[in-house]
Amino acid sequence: MVKEQKDVLLTVRNLETRFGTRTIHHGLDLDVYKGELLVLFGGSGTGKSTLLRAIIGLDQAASGSIRLGDQELLELDDKGWRDVRRQIGYSFQSGALFDSLTVGENLEYPLREFTHQNASERKAAATAMLKRVGLPGIEDLYPSQLSGGMQKRVGMARTLMLDPALILYDEPTAGLDPANSKMIAELMRELKQSGKTGILVTHDVPCALSVGDRIAYLHAGKISVVQTREDIDKSPDEHISAYMNGEIE
Questions:
Q1: In terms of residue numbers, what domain contains 158?
Q2: Number of domains in the chain
């Protein structure tokens, strides 16, 4: 039987990142396929969020290669990064909304920065996106008037405003109650079903197994395991087994 050839959207090779004298990643390799949601597991402090930040250029890699399609990201200048960030959406752990702007203005912000849409077009796009994430009619509210779950969904909505090719989810369900966690998981599932590619960093094992296609495990600076969600429970790797059983934070 001929194995199905999958298109790779993101390729990371021999990546090294450091904070001062401390090495976070060394020799890290990872492929992310078009249309999949790849889950990134690993203990606290292993550099999961740092990897996301390196992919989008918020943290500078010391060496290695990160390619989005045919484009080498680590060779980009400031203008190049600005263009690439239209293609990569980052859903921050905190939501990272601007407190002084309304919800509608928060969603319109990337359109003002990166497009030539007029005010009415931006407003219509923000209204449509809020409906998409299940929060219609809150354009005039401020972030302080929203619950934690609503803030995270608004943050995800803003991430989607430029229709990115790749979405980076950093702990989207952290600190949320089960009902809001379920809403976030359903939104990620819908985005995947619409063809969006994503990388999900999370400690929420049930959420990850409900939405992810493959699971990658980060240990000692490298990706030690990559398996489908169906096979991850059978992994002989002792670290992934301990993580899945809640023995590693």
A1: 94-163
A2: 1
Determine how β-strand 214-219 pairs with β-strand 37-42.
Answer: parallel
Predicted model pTM: 0.92
- 77: CB partners within 8 A, 6+ apart: none
Does residue 129 form part of some domain?
A: yes
Burial of 67 (0-12, 13-18, 19+ CB in 10 A): middle
70 assigned to some structural domain: no
Structural domain contains residue 147: yes
State the first-to-last Cα distance of the chain, in angstroms, to the nearest integer: 41
**Which residue type sits at 94?**
S
Helix (H/G/I), strand (E/B), else coil: 31: strand
Q: Are 9 and 166 in contact (CB under 8 A)?
A: yes
Q: Which pLDDT tens digits describe the chain residue by residue (249 residues)?
A: 445 678 999 999 999 999 889 999 999 999 999 999 999 999 888 999 999 999 999 999 999 999 999 999 999 999 999 999 999 999 987 668 999 999 999 999 999 999 999 999 999 999 999 999 999 999 999 999 999 889 999 999 999 999 999 999 999 998 888 998 999 999 999 999 999 999 999 999 999 999 999 999 999 999 998 988 888 877 777 888 788 877 776
The answer as to whether 78 is a domain residue is no
